[in-house]
Amino acid sequence: MAGDQKGKAKAEQAKGKVKETIGRAVGNERLTAEGQAEQSKGDARQAKEKTKDVFKH
User: Fold this and answer.
1) Strands (E), 1-57
2) DSSP secondary-structure letter at 27?
3) Residue 36 burial by Cβ neighbours in a 10 Å radius (0-12, 13-18, 19+)
């Protein structure tokens, strides 16, 4: 399960980065903001999983 969550975190971060990059390239502030939000969501999920790992060991 934890590996699945880590994968989701990486996917969210990557998807967010793509959206942000495209948004900046075409001058779409909404798309840029959505991308940044997705990256943040992925970062939060990744941090949560890292915290879980610390307490498992």
Assistant:
1) none
2) T
3) middle
